[in-house]
Write a structure and sequence with these properties.
Largest sheet: 8 strands, mixed
CATH architecture: 3-Layer(aba) Sandwich
Number of helices: 6
Helix content: 25-40%
Shape: globular
Mean pLDDT: 96
Low-confidence stretches: none
Strand content: 25-35%
Order of helices and strands: EEHHHEEEHEHEEH
């Protein structure tokens, strides 16, 4: 099939506004302390188990990691800022950005306790996905260690299609990683986008923030 394809632009370092969170480029002065606290809160070992780096042991290590992250265009990191508190409670990145073929991945996700398993985390994903497809990307990827059951559940919940297993794909922290591979493509997104928008409506949550209807996005 011949395409009149001219490529997709590089994502910009610009804020992405949601109802519950906004995503902004990492900034050491604004985000380092809050991200350090989110990273090192209870459950840090599990939070960083499948990430390429270990949890920071000091605010100095947090600064050093952020300096390296900010200096790179790929991965392109954003802080996830809770609009209620103004605190950066997590971070995520666009990565393996292939503008020639219109392929982009979301990864390096660290959602602290204030974000994990909340509508704020779901909106953080939605804002990234919506931005990527608005830019004209044809394919959004999600990859994770095949042993990372929570990440695989999240991929399916967010509407990704499982495409297979890349055996012995990487060595991470000295251990083998078989990588589970997922994607959403551009023709999937209009339907998924409507479902996300409906689920994120304030009326879908009670006064305690509990969902009234589940987000069910079959690929």
């Amino acid at each position: 099939m011949t395409l009149n394809w001219k490529g997709a632009p590089q994502p910009d370092k610009l804020p992405l506004e949601g109802a519950y969170v906004h995503l902004v480029p990492l900034d050491i002065e604004q985000h380092a302390q809050a991200l350090f606290e989110a990273s090192t809160a209870e459950g840090r070992e599990e939070r960083f188990r499948y990430l390429a780096e270990e949890a920071p042991r000091s605010i100095e290590e947090q600064h050093q990691w952020m300096e390296r992250a900010i200096a790179r265009a790929d991965p392109l990191f954003f802080a996830v800022v809770d609009k209620t508190t103004g605190r950066a409670e997590g971070r995520q990145a666009f990565m393996r950005i292939d503008t020639a073929n219109g392929v982009i991945e979301i990864g390096h996700i660290m959602w602290g306790p204030a974000l994990a398993r909340t509508r704020k985390a779901t909106e953080a994903f939605f804002l990234f996905a919506d931005y990527a497809f608005q830019l004209g990307y044809r394919r959004l990827e999600w990859k994770c260690n095949d042993e990372n059951a929570p990440s695989k559940r999240a991929a399916i919940r967010f509407g990704f299609s499982h495409e297979g297993l890349f055996r012995q794909h990487m060595v991470v922290k000295g251990l083998n990683r078989d990588t589970a591979w997922y994607s959403i493509i551009d023709r999937d997104w209009p339907r998924l986008r409507q479902s996300f928008q409906a689920w994120l409506e304030p009326g879908n949550f009670d006064d305690a923030g509990n969902q009234l209807h589940k987000l069910t996005l079959s690929p």
